[in-house]
Amino acid sequence: MNSTRLILSMDTGIDDALALAYLSTFNDIDVLGVIGTYGNVSVGTAVRNTAYVLGLLGMGDVPVLRGSNGPSWADWFIPDAGCAQFHGTDGLGGFGPGTDERPAATCHDGCPAIEAGGLTVSVGGYTVDDPHANPAYPVDSVRGRETDDRLSPGVRFIIDQVRRYGHDVTVVATGPLTDVDAAFTAAPDIAPLLRLVMMGGTLTQEGNCWDLTAETNIIQDPEAADRVFHSGADITMVGLDVTHQCLIGTAATRSWREAATSRPACASDETSLPRPETLRFLADIADFSIAANLRADARLFSSGMPLHDPLAVAVALDQMLVSCIDLPMKVETESGDFHGTRGRTIGDPEGLIDPQAPRVHVALHVDAARFVGEFTARIGGMLG
């Protein structure tokens, strides 16, 4: 049985917002808190987006905590332009409350001017001098970490709640695993107590990064992900193997708009239900992502956008949606001969010689029709 208590770690973009909307349709789920972390956007924008979406959903009383500023291997983080392509520069397709990304002047050659002073800068998981680094906005300088986010409020929250509830709370990470890794580093005792459902990685499918091997959440912080895989926590990996099978298209968003139109605003004003404009907002951001995915790969996404993060939260509530194999897993942290490709999630050969090596529940099959149908209906029916 999965616990109905959840802690969410989110780099709140469009599919994160849709995951929150899905959760809001359940009456028996206790969201203890949502941690806004870096990834699709900066940590500040993630926190702002999270609070904004929760407010629209009538969940404004859920605590929102600040998570990690950037990956464990870097001193500074800049969002990638590829994430802006799929989520908008504000993370919510231009329909959100705005962004706190720091504006700066563009360099003469179109590249960001970095005065790193020996600091390591991550641009969406790539070092700033990597040819794949593609910043979402120009940056004029790098000044180092704003705070020591090893013990950010979000990391402390994970530690405190897992110590309190153990396996009776599930942590759902739909962004990089930096927050979870930081919690293990600060409090190793919680690893055997922690139940984690993570959206990230891929085992049997192509990746969605430049090398078509790594997956976006993992490439942000491969070192953290590898440590989490080896932590001994109870981990379910919901990767591209299953999320790419769960697509929604414009027929779904059209039905949401129709539901919003048929429900006068005054009808929901008198109840705790979300207002029609909330449902239109969800249709707007989903349509943005549907169009972006179609432009990116018309072959894979002709039927719509993949429900990456909504599927992860759904699995946290009902693991019967997926079937898994239990496999010792590792994340490649370097590229090259005898290393592999940085960010790749792959079986760990250590498991061949050590039967006690930690196993990860890797989701390989999904009841896509059941999940997509339920997701679409729940969102469409949220106005009552």
What does this structure look like?
- One of its GO terms (biological process) is purine nucleoside catabolic process.
- GO terms for molecular function: purine nucleosidase activity; uridine nucleosidase activity.
- Keywords: Glycosidase, Hydrolase.
- With 384 residues, the protein is α/β, with parallel strands linked by helices.
- The chain has a domain at 5-71 and 84-98 and 148-244 and 308-369: Inosine-uridine Nucleoside N-ribohydrolase, Chain A (Alpha-Beta Complex), CATH 3.90.245.10.
- 35% of the residues lie in helices and 16% in strands.
- The chain contains 14 helices and 15 strands.
- The two termini are 28 Å apart.
Brief write-up:
The protein has helices at residues 14-24, 43-56, 81-87, 153-165, 178-186, 216-220, 222-229, 240-243, 250-261, 265-269, 276-296, 308-317, 350-353, 368-380; strands at residues 5-10, 30-36, 64-66, 76-78, 121-123, 126-127, 169-173, 195-199, 234-238, 247-248, 305-306, 322-327, 329-331, 345-347, 360-366.
